[in-house]
Amino acid sequence: MPPINLTKHIEALIFSSVQSISVQEIVLALNAVLEQEFSETQIFESLAAIKQKYIDSNCAIELVSLNNGYQFLTKKEYHETVNQLQLHRSKKKLSQAAMETLAIIAYRQPITKLEIEQIRGVNSDYSVQRLLEKELISIEGKSEAPGRPILYTTSGLFMDYFGLNNLSQLPQLKDIAKEENTIGETAE
Predict the structure, then answer these.
(1) Which fold has domain 93-178?
(2) Which residues lie across from 71 on neighbouring strands?
(3) What does pTM read for this prediction?
(4) What is the distance in angstroms between the CA of the first residue and the CA of the last residue of the chain?
(5) pLDDT at 165
(6) Are 127 and 101 in contact (CB under 8 A)?
């Protein structure tokens, strides 16, 4: 059985990694820090011990092998709870300007930043950048207009975020416009 110290170092590496960590990365990190040569066999033995520890214990997380690496993930029975928290947090972080920009992109896509700014009447650099960082929009390509500006569209994450299967499910203006907001007589 591998030394407990080795297992704890591996557990710390996996815990601190944002994405899955490969056995090769674990070996490199351990060999550098602990100044000793560890084999992949020793690492696999420790990984098996860590995996068993989380299976046996009453923890909400487990060690999962994915993408040729290892990562701690929430056990399946807690996914819905964690998902609600993530949705709540991500929804809170969209500013009014970002929501306006996202709505313009959703309804007018593909669209350039200049067109967004013409509709909003203000600079939209920051909002577009935040939406790209949150992966709610993506770059579709370049327009044929002079200067070949970048075209923006909504992403798959946008669809998940708002619970849509396709863009035709976006509310239409007639669905959200109130009659008291109209001016003059309505034509029949």
Answers:
(1) Arc Repressor Mutant, subunit A (1.10.10)
(2) 64
(3) 0.49
(4) 82
(5) 79
(6) yes
